[in-house]
Amino acid sequence: MKNMIMPIAVFGITNLVADIKSGEAVYKANCAICHTVNGGRAMGPDFNLVSYRRKTSQIEQYAKDPYSLYKEFGYSANAMPTLPLEEQEFKDVAEYISSLQPFKEWMKK
């Protein structure tokens, strides 16, 4: 019984942590058609800019419910669709986007 508790605990903890590599795969499969990384032209904003301006929690919330924050972010309308992702995929893609810029606008004094 003791031998089973440790793997279960480790499995449970790893599922709570976002994974940047998995997030990149989610981005490529679901976001890349509308958003670029490192410049380019697309319908949505470049994710380097998003990463600079937004906290990870904001990115995750907006990805889950695009209508929840669009006015707060200064957008006059929302073109972002609601994505059919799993909870972990939202965490992963938000962590990936956030990882693109180590320095954030909100860190400025």
**Radius of gyration computed on alpha carbons:** 16 Å
Described by the principal axes of the CA atoms, the overall outline is globular
What percentage of residues falls in helices of 4 or more residues?
Answer: 40-55%
Q: What is the terminal-to-terminal distance?
A: 52 Å
**Could you name the ranges where pLDDT drops below 50 across 5 or more consecutive residues?**
7-14
Average pLDDT rating? 87
Largest sheet: none
The CATH superfamily appears as Cupredoxins -  blue copper proteins
Total domain units = 1
Number of helices, where a helix is a run of at least 4 consecutive DSSP H or I residues:
5
Query: What CATH first level would be assigned?
Result: Mainly Beta
Q: Write down the CATH topology.
A: Immunoglobulin-like
Let me know the number of strands: 0
Query: What proportion strand?
Result: under 5%
Q: Output the helix-strand order.
A: HHHHH
User: Class by helix and strand content?
Assistant: mainly alpha
Label the CATH architecture: Sandwich
Characterize the quaternary organization of these chains: single chain
